[in-house]
Amino acid sequence: MRCNAVSYRHRRVAEDILKMEKAGKVTARAFTYAELSEATGGFRPESLLGEGGFGPVYRGRLGSSSGPEVAVKQLDRNGMQGTREFLVEALMLSLLKHSNLVTLLGFCTDADHRMLIYEYMPLGSLEDHLLDLPPGRAPLDWATRMRVAQGAARGLEYLHDTARPPVIYRDFKASNILLDTGFRARLSDFGLAKVGPVGDKSHVSTRVMGTYGYCAPEYALTGKLTTMSDVYSFGVVFLEIITGSRAIDTTRPPEKHNLVLWAAPRFKDKRRFAEMADPLLKGAYPTKGLYQALAIAAMCLQEDATMRPAISDVVTALDYLTVAGGGAAANEPPAPNPNQQQQQTDIIGHAGEQA
Fold first, then answer.
1. Omega cis (within 30) before 165
2. According to the model, what pLDDT value does residue 202 have?
3. Model confidence over 122-152: pLDDT tens digits?
4. 13, 25, 81, 154: which has the fewest C-beta neighbours closer than 10 Å?
5. CATH of the domain spanning 126-354, picked from 2.60.40.10, 1.10.8.60, 1.10.510.10, 1.10.10.10
6. Which parts of the sequence belong to the Protein kinase domain (predicted)?
């Protein structure tokens, strides 16, 4: 009986995606299992890029040897995420298009196979370049860190302010921020994303999901989800970017197991700001830029969700910070106008008042 139920669910997933494709809502292509097996060399171990809650991800090349490189995410039917998350991610990324989101090229629903096909991100994830670096590996410089944070914030801004209805990402963390050849941030893994509140609703009530250490306190306690939940998670990752430390790391001394709790008293004492800079930077960062970055992180990490800035204000502050600190990429917009600078100053000043 259970096998019949599972088969029925599998058919429904395929049918739901195909209905959206026929309606012109899905621009991604349907791939066969045979095509993807050929692209990845039979899913050989050498093609494995990594593994997450969804399942293993393989590197492949479509068509001939000159075809585009892709990343093939294969659903692990015994994994932490399942058919629902597969459908959510397929539909979300088919409908959402932005330069700071990964591009979904296609999907596979052959028989009981469930796969998603993305453009390949050659530099891997932010986590690969920031956390637990092997000895001798050069750390990301300050300007690159700020550009990555800027791009990731712009991705969230698109989800919160441009997508209709708005989307709450719900799983913002370093391993879900992929990097293209120019270190441009691309948000990935939308399996836990939720459609945000619309009309006069202030929140979405849902089962608490996400990664420990990144969830906003009010969401973890009540299950009430808002865009401010994503802003808190951004603050955690931004603090990781500044410090080079994981949000939760039990291998560190007890007082630093939880990065946010460790940082809290330091946010209130300007004399201790330098303690929060990644030691691998060896002081190679603008002092004013560090202070401003910490102020942004502190605002995003406010316990009271109503005191956190909107992600659009965070983007404005980071736009100013990257330009002022020499971190703007060649294809990024010019320096903000005076009104944008005032918004950035307001965030910095407000953070100082809260400290």
1. yes
2. 58
3. 999 999 999 999 888 899 999 999 999 999 9
4. 25
5. 1.10.510.10
6. 43-321
